[in-house]
Amino acid sequence: MPDPDALLDRIRRAARQEQFLDIVSAAEATRRFRAALDLRPLPAEMVPLAASLGRVVARGVAALADAPPFDRSSVDGFALRAADSAGASEAAPRRFRLNPEVLACGVSPAIEVAPGSATAIATGGVVPRGADAVVMIEQTALEEGPEGPVMLLSRAAAPGQCIAFAGSDIARGEALLRPGTPVTSREIGMLAAAGLAEVPVVRRPRVAVLSTGDELVPPGAPLPPGGIHDSNAAILCAAVAEHGGEPLPLGIFRDDEAVLEAAVRRALEAADLVVMSGGTSKGAGDVSHRILARLDPPGVLVHGVALKPGKPLCLAAVGTRPVAILPGFPTSAVFTFQEFVVPVIRALAGLPAREEAEVAATLAVRTPSELGRTEYVMASLAEAGERLRAFPLGKGSGSVTAFSQADGFFAIPALDQGAEAGAEVGVRLIGTSRPPDLTIIGSHCLGLDAVLEALAAQGIRGRTLAVGSLGGLAAAKRGECDLAGAHLLDPASGTYNAPFLAPGLRLVPGWRRLQGVVHRRGDPRFEGLPGPEAIRRAAADPGLLLVNRNAGSGTRILLDGLLGGARPPGHANQPKSHNAVAAAVAQGRADWGVAIATVAEAYGLGFLPLADEHYDFFLPEARAARPAVQAFLAALQAPGVRARLAALGFAPA
Ligand SMILES: Nc1nc2c(c(=O)[nH]1)N[C@H]1C(S)=C(S)[C@@H](COP(=O)(O)OP(=O)(O)OC[C@H]3O[C@@H](n4cnc5c(N)ncnc54)[C@H](O)[C@@H]3O)O[C@H]1N2
Ligand code: MOO
């Protein structure tokens, strides 16, 4: 175990080199940020009842009216004096003179119920003076007497029977809502019943959201080479609204200090809080934090947090107005936003702290971590018997999907270099995701989406975790998934998947897909060659660059077999998906690779067939009876799914 002080010293020195001169812990960053801000809820404003949904009650709201507003009959029947009914029975019914009025809803009674009399009343009718009970119509009969109509009652009534008394539900002046209550449809119903047309709510904090970066284009606009869609602004604005704020999307700004400074100054005038993303690290274009030095004090409070994702986070205040510059990487941006900015928005919005839930899980694979930063690892959860298993998404800070698709995250402490497979981790849950009905781990295939969509239409939620064919097989053996998708070639027998079966596993046939060499159309070095011949020539041509695949993938096993030990240029470039291979070839970063026909076509690439491989599923016997698994097996055979698979280019197994 290294000496922690010496380690911290090393980390500080490294941080200085990185120019994060004052890197602090997450707790210290939070402390400094909060100390500089005024975190009381913003002032109240009155809004119409219908507009109060989702807002936060600013001050106590008292009822303006009783509910019900009068003593009200809760049945259809007759209002009478309970004392007159004493002794009534089927054998000896009591007789009541019927008063000449009928108290429908909304009718104000004119006739007092005198002893020995009764008045017909509807559910919701006003109980008339003199009456102290209502009897149900089913317990009565009517007849015509010598002095007019008579009601015969066959059961004695108790005083107060079938009457809802005025104010018994809501009493005028009663406190209905307390400050800090989020208004839902339930609160709105009570307020309406108590006569309120307007509600005092906390003014929503206005949060200006700016994206910076020359490469950014808004979603919907075509991507130029090197361009990226601005996803941060979209997720941040939506998250602002989710936590009681009002987003002000201010758009995308180039890495131009003067333009950005003017935008930040405008944002500070219009908003209660300013959130930027991008340009906070150390690149030449990273200008955002420099601007803050020129605004009103106290300025930058924190720049650099010993945290992953999120190291370059910059927290500042202009007066007591919070400014956060989030790292540009999407996972880093949204993670630091959730950790540091959401509590501030909620406080200003008058909302209570967010509820946080944590579950215990066993880590499925060894997870390395950078020394010196507390690393938060986004993970998916899968049920494995009694226990939950945590699978790190392994997508890194630049991923857009890591935070959005994770069930939660766990921490690896700053002084650890990783966590071992089998370690117990506490996973803090994100959002409202619950474990899926069906977990499929292994090699991902586009065809799987056709099956899972059919299941989704039946209300069955499937989840796929792409860990490669061998990873899926291992997970199936450990009983951590319902199915493992695989396309594993056994070179000795030339067959797929079956040779890899282990006790307790069953093989479910999936479909066949064509693997082949992908190249740019028209490239004379490939055009027209048979696949295996193309590989032999390409491997011998030093001018051609390969894009390989990751170890453990079925495609890599196939390619390794065909290369026969050769390591052509580009061999070390090993992305994890068919799409990455196709993109590298299409964009000219490589000249050839191996991928499936469906993907080659999607990228407009030339395709030279190599192998008709089988994509099947390993099914742990212990899971076979689960309804979601049975539904999956049925969907695999369904004509609609088969047709979709065929349309995508997948052949029957
Ligand atoms: N030499 C060093 N390089 C980097 C360091 C470092 O310490 N030394 N830190 C790394 C870490 S950690 C992070 S996190 C990132 C964050 O850098 P920036 O905040 O400066 O972000 P950018 O460089 O502007 O962008 C990074 C990345 O994210 C994409 N991006 C930016 N904005 C958006 C957006 N609105 N929507 C979607 N994607 C966005 C951008 O295109 C880049 O790909 O720096 C490391 N580098
Ligand atoms: O801290 Mo950065 O957010 O690792 O990727």
From TrEMBL:
One of its GO terms (cellular component) is cytoplasm. Its cofactor is Mg(2+). One of its GO terms (molecular function) is metal ion binding. Coiled coil: none annotated. Residues 208-347 form the MoaB/Mog domain. Keywords: Magnesium, Metal-binding, Molybdenum, Molybdenum cofactor biosynthesis, Transferase. One of its GO terms (biological process) is Mo-molybdopterin cofactor biosynthetic process. It comes from the Bacteria. It catalyses: adenylyl-molybdopterin + molybdate = Mo-molybdopterin + AMP + H(+). It holds the Pfam family MoCF_biosynth. Belongs to the MoeA family. This is Molybdopterin molybdenumtransferase.
